[in-house]
Amino acid sequence: EQQQARVVSTWDFGVGANQAAWKTLRAGGSALDAVEQGARWAESDLCNATVGRCGNPDRDGHVSLDASIMDGDGRCGSVAALEDILHPISVARRVMEKTPHVMLVGAGAQQFAVEQGFRKKNLLSPTAKEAWQEWKKESKYRPQMNVERLSKAMPGDKTNHDTLGMLAIDSNGRLAGACTTSGMAWKLRGRVGDSPIIGAGLYVDNEVGAATASGVGEEMIRNAASFLVVEMMRQGKSPSEACLAALERIVKKREEASKNLQVCLLAMNKHGEVGAYALHHGFVYAVCDHDKDERLLDSASVYA
Ligand code: SD4
């Protein structure tokens, strides 16, 4: 049975990322290839301060990247705290396809990338460097809520926007997802967020659906948030009901903290239906399923 192909992504820059992924889907390509292409677009083409090159660094000035990729058949790969490599998503895919492992970190991930032919490149942009030097004057780490649209969060912005989380279904009904980020700006060196952790920042299962996350990664890790969303869909919830149920779990456990941090969840079920929910207002996500049908939608939120 033919399935209408569709791709969805977190945040405003998801529009551009979806277009890159759509080229693959439109040509009958796989969801897996599509999400890799979409993530690569965000990692390279857009000079945002939160994914790939030009990302804000950790508090010691290192741009350190996290990424994961997962296919609906259960295959997955990821890299964490990877430095000086432009396309962590493609390294993650190589981990999935060329090694018996799921996750490589830090120096070992970089060594593997270089062995696979990826070139080393300094990813710290002058603007991000300036922003970091400015931050160092006070050196206060407060993960800020990303409730403003990305257009305001260009390099140097002190907010902690925005991971690209992308989910796709292809015309054969296969699902895949990708997640890529430079993580929370000014994080401790070595900090790993949710994005490269299968089940936290991304989870995909052809039998049910897929989910991805953006926001303060520690909350998603604590609650295996993306896995939880998929399991909620398995129990019969719609994508947005499943996202809400996962957020309710987070709020129940950490009510005070939840008032001041953002968690954004995006889900797609095996029929291609899409839903999203965030703790706070301001989360937007992009949907693309026809050449001319590109939508940027406001997510519902738990708090106003
Ligand atoms: C992280 N979830 O590293 C990422 C950051 C993010 O919007 O999505 N910010 O915790």
TrEMBL record:
<feature type="site" description="Cleavage; by autolysis">
    <location>
        <begin position="162"/>
        <end position="163"/>
    </location>
</feature>
<dbReference type="Pfam" id="PF01112">
    <property type="entry name" value="Asparaginase_2"/>
</dbReference>
<feature type="active site" description="Nucleophile">
    <location>
        <position position="163"/>
    </location>
</feature>
<dbReference type="InterPro" id="IPR000246">
    <property type="entry name" value="Peptidase_T2"/>
</dbReference>
<dbReference type="InterPro" id="IPR029055">
    <property type="entry name" value="Ntn_hydrolases_N"/>
</dbReference>
<protein>
    <submittedName>
        <fullName>N(4)-(Beta-N-acetylglucosaminyl)-L-asparaginase</fullName>
    </submittedName>
</protein>
<dbReference type="GO" id="GO:0016811">
    <property type="term" value="F:hydrolase activity, acting on carbon-nitrogen (but not peptide) bonds, in linear amides"/>
</dbReference>
<dbReference type="GO" id="GO:0005737">
    <property type="term" value="C:cytoplasm"/>
</dbReference>
